[in-house]
UniProtKB/TrEMBL annotation:
The keyword ATP-binding applies. Gene3D superfamilies: P-loop containing nucleotide triphosphate hydrolases. Residues 15-249, 268-509 form the ABC transporter domain. CDD domains: ABC_Carb_Monos_I, ABC_Carb_Monos_II. It comes from the Bacteria. GO terms for molecular function: ATP binding; ATP hydrolysis activity. It comes from Hoyosella subflava (strain DSM 45089 / JCM 17490 / NBRC 109087 / DQS3-9A1). InterPro entries: AAA+_ATPase (IPR003593), ABC_carbohydrate_import_ATPase (IPR050107), ABC_transporter-like_ATP-bd (IPR003439), ABC_transporter-like_CS (IPR017871), P-loop_NTPase (IPR027417). PROSITE patterns: ABC_TRANSPORTER_1, ABC_TRANSPORTER_2. Keywords: ATP-binding, Nucleotide-binding, Repeat, Transport. This is ABC transporter-like protein.
Length: 510
C-alpha cells in the first residue's frame, strides 16, 4: 500500500489500516490485516463467523486496542483509544442491536452523547437540527415522539442521524438489515448510496450477499483473521462465498444456493405421513391451510415478511390460537393450544427471533440444550447434574458447537452456534417434527452449511422438518415449497419444479 504518511491529504483514503493484529489467549483474531476505504466508497467486509470481522469493527470503533498496526483517517494517523476517540476521529459505528433509548424522544436520542458529556443546549436549537437531519434522510417523523414508538426501519435511520450529526468520515454498518423488512432494507441501501455520494466512506457487513452486490463498490474477505481476498469490483455471489469458505466450498449446499445451482436438503422422504394439517386457520392472519409432511421430508414455506408464514408456524406450535382446523401426528389427532401441548405431541420450534423467543441468554449452553427434557435427567424428581452435563458435552461434540465449555453463557455465543444449541434442544427431546423459522438468518455461509448438515442428519434419522424462510434460494433446497401471500397458499412446487419455476415463485412474492 505504500506509506500513508506520504499521501496528499486531499487524495488520501477516508480510512486506511495497516498490519492490524490482535491476539486473545489461544486465539489470533487478526493477523496483519490491511484495509482501505476511499471517500464515497461502500466497501463490503465479508467473512464467516470467527473470521475476524467483529474484532476489526471493535478496533475501528475504539472498543478494543490492536496489539500492532496503524490507522489513518484522511491521511492522518490516529489512535482510537476509546469509542469517543473513534467518533472524534470521524468513525461512527451502527450496530445490528441499536443503542437507542426507547422511552426518550427522537431529538433526545440524537443528542444523547452530548448530554452524557455535560453539554447544554437550547431545546429549540436541538429540535431544529434534528428536523434538518430527518429531512436529509428523507424521514417524516415528529422529533418529539418517543423513538420506541417508531418502526424498526425508522429507528435505524435515527441511529444514522446520530452519526451524521457529528459529520463522520467513515460509517461502519454491522449487520444493520438483519431485523428489517424488505421495504426498510431497500430504503437503507438507498440511503447508503446517497451518503457515499456525499463523500462518506462506508464499511458494510452483511451475510445477505444480494445486499452486498446491490450497494457495495468493492469487497474485502476475511478468513481466520487474515484478508484472503480483495475485489475492486463486486463479483458474483459464488466468488465471495468461495473466498469465505476456502476448501469447504466445493459440493456445499451453501455454494449451491449461492450459485443458484442444484442442491438438495432433503430427497429421502418416505410414504409415511408424520404430520397432517387440515384447514388450519386463526380466523385472521392465516387462511385455512392444508398439507401433509412425510417422514424424512423437508417442506419449505416462503413468502415476504408479513405474508402469514410466521403466523402459520405459530398456529402449528400453539403460540397463536387456531380457531378452526385439525392437526394429526403419526395418524393421531392432537389438540395444540399451547407450546407445551405442541412439545408433548412431538413438535419442536426454532423461532424466527432466537434471542427473545428461543434461548435463555443468561443461561449456559448446557441448560438451554436440556431445557425441554429435564425429566429425562432426573432421578426420583432430583436433577442429575452430572448426567445433564455429560449429555451437553456429547451434543456440543456431535453438533460441532463452538464454545469454551458447556457452561458458557449462550448469550455470548455466535448466531450460528446459538442456532445449533436450539437444534440440540429438540434433538435431545427426540422431536418428530421440527419447525425452523428463518434458520440461517444472520449467520454466515459456513454456519449455514453446518446447520444444513444437521438438518439432513435429523431427516436421515427419521425426523421431518418445516423450514419457514424468506429466501427463495433456501426454499429451493427443500422437497416441496408452499408460497404464501396475505396468509393464503398461492402456489406449491416440488423440488424438481422449483429450479425451473423460481422466477414464477418470485413473481408470487412481489
Amino acid at each position: 500500500m505504500g506509506d500513508p504518511e506520504m499521501a496528499d491529504n486531499s487524495t488520501a483514503p477516508a480510512l486506511r489500516v495497516s498490519g492490524l493484529t490482535k491476539h486473545y489467549p489461544g486465539v489470533t483474531a487478526l493477523a496483519g490485516v490491511d484495509l482501505e476505504v476511499k471517500p464515497g466508497q461502500v466497501l463490503s467486509l465479508s467473512g464467516a463467523n470467527g473470521a475476524g470481522k467483529s474484532t476489526l469493527v471493535k478496533i475501528l470503533s475504539g472498543a478494543e486496542q490492536p496489539d500492532t498496526g496503524r490507522i489513518w483517517i484522511d491521511g492522518k494517523e490516529v489512535k482510537l483509544e476509546s469509542p469517543h476517540a473513534a467518533r472524534q476521529a470521524g468513525i461512527y459505528t451502527i450496530y445490528q442491536e441499536m443503542s437507542l433509548v426507547p422511552a426518550m424522544s427522537v431529538v433526545e436520542n440524537i443528542f444523547l452523547d452530548d448530554f452524557a458529556r455535560g453539554g447544554l443546549f437550547r431545546r429549540s436549537k436541538m429540535e431544529r437540527q434534528a428536523r434538518e437531519l430527518m429531512d436529509r434522510l428523507g424521514l417524516s417523523v415528529n422529533v418529539n415522539d418517543p423513538v420506541g414508538s417508531l418502526p424498526l426501519g425508522k429507528q435505524q435511520f435515527v441511529e444514522i442521524a446520530k452519526a451524521l450529526k457529528s459529520q463522520p468520515r467513515v460509517l461502519l454498518l454491522d449487520e444493520p438489515t438483519t431485523t428489517l423488512p424488505p421495504r426498510d432494507v431497500s430504503s437503507l441501501l438507498k440511503l447508503m448510496r446517497e451518503l457515499a455520494a456525499s463523500g462518506v466512506g462506508l464499511i458494510f457487513i452483511s451475510h445477505r450477499l444480494d445486499e452486498v452486490t446491490e450497494v457495495c463498490d468493492a469487497v474485502d474477505v476475511l478468513r481466520d483473521g487474515r484478508r484472503v481476498a480483495h475485489f475492486d469490483l463486486v463479483p458474483d455471489h459464488h466468488e465471495i462465498v468461495k473466498a469465505m469458505m476456502g476448501d469447504r466450498y466445493e459440493n456445499s449446499l451453501a455454494a449451491a444456493a449461492a450459485e443458484n445451482a442444484e442442491g438438495y436438503l432433503g430427497g429421502i422422504a418416505g410414504d409415511e405421513v408424520v404430520l397432517e394439517v387440515r384447514e388450519l386457520t386463526d380466523g385472521n392472519r392465516v387462511a385455512p391451510a392444508t398439507f401433509d409432511l412425510r417422514r424424512g421430508e423437508v417442506l419449505g414455506i416462503t413468502g415476504l415478511l408479513g405474508a402469514g408464514q410466521t403466523e402459520l408456524a405459530e398456529c402449528l406450535f400453539g403460540i397463536r390460537e387456531a380457531t378452526d382446523g385439525t392437526i394429526s401426528v403419526d395418524g393421531r389427532p392432537v389438540r395444540i393450544r399451547t407450546p407445551r401441548e405442541a412439545i408433548s405431541a412431538g413438535l419442536g420450534l426454532i423461532p424466527e427471533d432466537r434471542k427473545s423467543q428461543g434461548l435463555v441468554l443468561g443461561m449456559s449452553a448446557n441448560k438451554n440444550i436440556t431445557l425441554a427434557s429435564l425429566t429425562s435427567f432426573a432421578r426420583k424428581g432430583v436433577l442429575d447434574h452430572r448426567k445433564e452435563v455429560q449429555h451437553g458435552r456429547e451434543q456440543v461434540r456431535e453438533l460441532n458447537i463452538k464454545c469454551s465449555s458447556v457452561h458458557q453463557t449462550v448469550g455470548t455465543m455466535s448466531g450460528g452456534n446459538q442456532q445449533k444449541v436450539l437444534l440440540a434442544r429438540w434433538l435431545t427431546k427426540n422431536s418428530k417434527v421440527l419447525i425452523l423459522a428463518e434458520p440461517t438468518r444472520g449467520v454466515d455461509v459456513a454456519a449455514k452449511e453446518e446447520i444444513y448438515r444437521l438438518i439432513r442428519d435429523y431427516l436421515r434419522d427419521g425426523g421431518a422438518a418445516i423450514i419457514v424462510t424468506s429466501e427463495v434460494a433456501e426454499a429451493a433446497l427443500c422437497d416441496r415449497v408452499l408460497v404464501l401471500t396475505g396468509g393464503r397458499v398461492v402456489a406449491e412446487a416440488t423440488h424438481e419444479e422449483i429450479r425451473s419455476q423460481q422466477q414464477d415463485l418470485l413473481t408470487h412474492l412481489r
